[in-house]
Recover the amino acids of this structure.
């Protein structure tokens, strides 16, 4: 294939619609703002894991689409989510990433959430319990009962993750939205309580969807040199992608032969409940959440888009809450040797998407990004991305390969078949 | 239970409060208001603030400095403009240099905690 001139380079790639996207979906500021409003503020987002707030009055802060959120565990053990915004003058109420309200703060009280600005106070259910100089300032025009926090839809589900939806009336319930793709993991992650043992985050100059794209295919293992020279076998590549409604994809399992990985050992003894030894499942949820169970350790990636070319990815590793210290250490070793910041794969995956982010900065010329590999739904097949961008097009009312045009349903024979 | 020794009278300086635990793990704060002693649960009835840290005593009046709720410890009347609830105390006396309180059961305050509304009902409220 000879090199191409500008006209040739910009031409359509000669694939079917749906088999490529316009790079503006990764670089355009307006498209990014639409994604925040039309997707992230309307879908269920796993913000953290319930083990991160284990005791009554524990809290964790996070955000969706730039809106600050606080998650609390009440004295009744219920996990609830609120906008982390004071109803008085719009102050960010809680500034710490996590902690406990059990002990009083210098400007607060035990068991209450206190806005440090003017000392308005709230309980774990979001009730306003104190307005400073209420009678003097508001006479009887406004009172505590009018000044509660904004509560958000919040459910603890699918292995104990805390799911929040900014939309009071989401168009689909959490179970209906993600229950089917999680079916393959449910008996493993819901058998007993899990616990987060690893957390780190990366802020990468790239588009959030490029991270999800990477998680949606495995033939980028050509980038993972050590995997390639020691870990590959036919079963690895024979795994299949299964598309589920709502844009989700599951990668089927196979038995990993860790003895073939230089310096690795079998993980069979610490398998998650009901999981055959050394199996590996992966759930990719639209619009960017990934659950990856490699035998003894569960990894979860949560993306928070910060701009068209900036994403925060939070990485969590989870084991069983009942782990002995020895079991936990082994699980951590298993997790970190592959997925830790200095593990076998993760930094290489980040190099991949950072390189894409470099070529697709805002303002760069639109070009075609190909998602056209068909290999019988195996992990070489880009079915996961095609399925994702069909869903993206519906939420955005934009054609992924021509985002100025409204979404049109793809021909039935071209559309990705959804698993039943 | 009955009259229980909490501490020595000299353990609590005038115009100060100190927290003690008696048998059964019951926490009791003793206040020395100069002309006498009071024994009470260890938290402010407003928002559970630990009184031995937040309480200030002056002219027999105990004030919780967080939101200025206040009570006269001699008469147990509410004091100031902010106070919305009375303070609860144990009967208390000084005997042979000891402070004794009459403790039948731990005195607790009822901090409002209304029941949750069903999610769908809550998120569909129009006003």
């Amino acid at each position: 294939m000879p090199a191409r001139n500008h006209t040739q380079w910009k031409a359509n790639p000669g694939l079917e619609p749906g088999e490529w996207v316009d790079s503006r979906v990764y670089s355009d500021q307006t498209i990014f703002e639409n994604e925040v409003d039309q997707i992230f503020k309307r879908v269920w987002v796993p913000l953290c894991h319930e083990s991160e707030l284990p005791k009554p009055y524990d809290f964790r802060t996070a955000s969706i689409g730039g809106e600050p959120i606080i998650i609390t565990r009440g004295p009744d053990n219920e996990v609830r989510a609120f906008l982390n915004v004071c109803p008085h003058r719009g102050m960010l109420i809680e500034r710490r990433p996590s902690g406990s309200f059990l002990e009083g703060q210098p400007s607060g009280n035990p068991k209450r959430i206190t806005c440090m600005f003017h000392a308005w106070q709230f309980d774990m259910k979001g009730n306003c319990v104190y307005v400073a100089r209420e009678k003097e300032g508001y006479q009887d025009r406004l009172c505590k009962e009018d000044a509660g926090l904004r509560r958000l839809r919040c459910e603890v589900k699918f292995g104990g993750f805390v799911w929040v939806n900014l939309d009071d009336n989401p168009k689909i319930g959490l179970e209906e939205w993600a229950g089917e793709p999680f079916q393959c993991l449910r008996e493993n992650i819901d058998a007993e309580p899990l616990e987060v043992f690893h957390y780190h985050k990366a802020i990468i100059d790239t588009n959030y969807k490029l991270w999800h794209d990477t998680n949606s295919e495995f033939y980028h293992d050509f980038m993972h040199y050590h995997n390639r020279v020691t870990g590959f076998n036919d079963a690895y590549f024979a795994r299949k992608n299964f598309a589920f409604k709502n844009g989700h994809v599951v990668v089927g399992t196979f038995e990993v032969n860790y003895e073939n990985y230089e310096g690795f050992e079998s993980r069979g003894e610490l398998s998650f409940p009901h999981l055959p030894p050394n199996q590996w499942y992966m759930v990719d949820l639209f619009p960017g959440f990934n659950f990856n169970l490699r035998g003894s350790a569960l990894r979860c990636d949560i993306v928070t888009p910060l701009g068209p070319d900036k994403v925060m990815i939070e990485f969590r590793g989870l084991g069983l809450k009942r782990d002995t210290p020895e079991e936990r250490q082994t699980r951590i070793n298993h997790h970190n040797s592959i997925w830790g910041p200095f593990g076998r794969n993760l930094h290489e995956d980040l190099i991949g998407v950072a390189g894409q982010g470099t070529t697709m900065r805002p303002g760069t010329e639109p070009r075609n990004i190909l998602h056209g590999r068909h290999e019988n739904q195996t992990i070489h097949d880009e079915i996961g991305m095609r399925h994702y961008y069909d869903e993206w097009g519906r939420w955005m009312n934009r054609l992924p390969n021509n985002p100025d045009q409204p979404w049109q349903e793809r021909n039935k024979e071209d559309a990705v078949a959804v698993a039943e | 239970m009955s009259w229980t020794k909490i501490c020595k009278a000299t353990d609590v300086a005038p115009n100060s409060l100190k927290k003690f635990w008696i048998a059964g793990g019951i926490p009791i704060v003793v206040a020395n208001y100069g002309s006498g002693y009071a024994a009470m649960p260890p938290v402010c009835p407003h928002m559970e603030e630990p009184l031995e840290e937040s309480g200030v005593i002056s002219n027999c009046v105990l004030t919780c400095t967080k939101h200025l709720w206040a009570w006269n410890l001699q008469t147990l009347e509410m004091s100031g403009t902010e106070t919305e609830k009375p303070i609860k105390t144990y009967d208390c006396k000084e005997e042979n240099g000891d402070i004794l309180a009459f403790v039948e059961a731990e005195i607790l305050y009822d901090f409002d905690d209304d029941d949750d509304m069903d999610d769908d009902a809550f998120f569909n409220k129009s006003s």
